[in-house]
Amino acid sequence: MTTTDRAADAAGTGAAGADRLPPEFFTDPEPGGTHAANTRLRTSGCPVHAINYPPGGDAYVVADYATALEGFSDPRLSKQVENAPAWFRDLLEDSSPVLIRNMITADAPEHTRLRRLVSRAFVPRRMALLRPRIQEITDELIDALPESGEVDLMEFAFSLPMRVICEFLGVPIEDRPDLHAWGYWLSGAPFADEESNAELKRASDSIERYLVDLLDERRRTGLGEDLVSILLRAADEEDVFTNDELVSTLVLLIIAGHKTTANLIGNGMQALFAHPDQLELLRAKPELAESAVEEFLRFEPPVYRGTLRVATEDMELAGCPIPKEGFVHILMDSANRDPEAFEDPDRLDITRGPNRHLAFGQGAHFCVGAPLSRVEGQVAFPTLLRRLPGLTLAVPHDSLDWVFDNSTSRGLKKLPVRYDARLAAGEGDH
Ligand code: HEM
Fold first, then answer.
1. CA atoms of 131 and 133, how far apart (whole Å)
2. 213-226: average pLDDT
């Protein structure tokens, strides 16, 4: 049975079919918007609801903060593909084997082994050392903008993290368009239609070939201080990773390392445009960048729901029964607006503190790249506001188009902006 057949079957006669949320809850939210739909979920009795996603799967969304926290640390919710229903596992193994041999699809103790090396490379102290280079890259990208006029700020938003992650990994930046295209398909895996899954398989094979070649070349030409070299050295000397795991880990870092941070910049800027008082406050007080970035992550999280989680036994979450092999999607965009956890949650307040948002997840799988993307955000927002006076949205705010693809990220298709002048780097400093 294909996933499309399963979806039809589930929508028709499945036990929970009648009151399940449709798959479009994720991919084509109703006109009132995601946040209005989430509020309805949180206030309709039980914060856990059945959803037909992946189409044909037995699946649930978690909408409130307290249950989301519980879900992130419940050992009965597995991230291991082996615990998913056979049809889903086969679909992933057939379409994108390169995705499922890294930490994000593993439970302890495998998870601990696969994560340790990478997380050591991403500690905040090391990321702080990257700050001057991130500032330089940000300035170079702004130098390349026209002196005034209109641009699509999503191009900047995608270029910054892609250049940073390529440099950090030691991957040639010229290969960015290929990495970007493969990342698009891989971050949506698996799809409900065969055509998309065939495209996904092509992307999976291509990125695997690309990285195997890159690793071979790095071994031949000698290791440096980049992250690929650090991981290679550990894999070769300490026998910590198989080559397959190394390739899969690099795929994860490339995918997780750019679209997410691009959407932090895009989602954060659009939130500022919708709240001009907060924009002016950040322009006047760039020292607020740290708390502002946390507030953007809370208010419009770039990753709106958790990645694969599957119940390993029949269980309950917030009193709602979840059967063995049921999928559980934790909605961070809903938890982050839960009034039980945040005062006045629909208000953007760049001075908010404490701000215990769930945009990077929680527990063992807490985002490895959080320290890196935080630095990128803390550099990007104040630099854009300082160097582009008059920066403003060039279209009506309600005409902005959100991307609702198959992946767990949510961002804008385009962010057309205009500005009065482009100041030189260093000019306009406080
Ligand atoms: C604003 C930017 C980012 C956001 C919002 C974000 C969000 C997340 C979230 C929510 C998770 C946990 C998923 C779950 O438990 O279901 C996660 C995991 C992860 N992220 Fe990020 N991420 C960002 C940037 C990055 C960057 C820049 C990198 C690396 C270069 C990265 C690498 C990872 C990795 C490797 C994991 C898996 C951790 C594990 O399974 O132990 N992320 N991220």
1. 5
2. 90
Residue 8 clears pLDDT 70, i.e. is over it: no
Tokens encoding 136: 């330089």
Q: For residue 307, report the distance from its CA to the centre of ligand 1, in Å.
A: 10
According to the model, what pLDDT value does residue 11 have?
37
Q: Is-contact 72 361, C-beta < 8 A? A: yes
Structure tokens at 102: 């890294």
- 415: Cβ–Cβ under 8 A, 6 or more apart, which residues? 152, 153, 154, 157, 266, 269, 270, 393, 400
For residue 424, what is the DSSP state?
P
Using a 6 Å CB cutoff, which residues line ligand 1? 103-104, 115, 165, 252-253, 256-257, 260-261, 264, 302-303, 306-307, 359-361, 365, 367-369, 372-373
Distance from the alpha carbon of residue 235 to the mean position of ligand 1, in angstroms:
22
Distance (Å) from CA 360 to ligand 1 centroid: 6
Query: What's the mean pLDDT when you consider all of the chain?
Result: 90
DSSP line for 348-368: --TT--S----TT--GGG--T
Mean pLDDT of 219-234: 87
Pick the residue whose CA is nearest to atom 6 on ligand 1: 360
The string of pLDDT tens digits covering residues 48-59 is 999 999 988 899
pLDDT in tens, 359-369: 999 999 999 99
Average pLDDT over residues 392-418: 93
Q: Which CATH class is domain 3-419?
A: mainly alpha
Atom of ligand 1 nearest to the CA of 165: 30
